[in-house]
Design goal:
- The chain is built from 6 helices and no strands.
- With about 160 residues, the protein is mainly alpha-helical.
- Helix 1 packs antiparallel against helix 3, helix 2 runs parallel beside helix 5 and helix 5 packs across helix 6.
- The N and C termini lie far apart (about 60 Å).
Amino acid sequence: MNAGPFEWRAMAAMLAQGRWLRAISLWLLAAALAGLWWSTAPLRTAVLLGSVVAALMQAYYALRVDFDARLLQALAETAPDGEDEAAAALRLDAGLIGLGLLPAARAGRDWAARWRGALGLLRRQAAALLLQWALLAGAFVLDGTWLGRIAGASA
């Protein structure tokens, strides 16, 4: 797989889509926190707390995805003319090792493995957002169903 400034910018642009996921997650988190404020039913409270935990997981992945996006963009912007992909990988790894962000044992991965890792983080971020949404929706469904009456009766 070839990797150069164009591919790095393209992957950075793809990973930048995680910012939309983060924004949606913040709105869902606000809704979950508002629901917690008014919740009196233990089951509903537990489901809302689960949504908050999923939001924290999403935030963790959002940080990692955004870091990778910015790192790839910086790599593309600072690439010397004619730098080959192996030299770029060494430059990237050396910088990350120097900052203590990459164990030396993980250095030297090929670009295909790096792409899989970055996209895997983006997928995990999306999965955490879906879990957050499902739990929040479940908490509000509890308000209007027989299950909600049962949960409310136990409060």
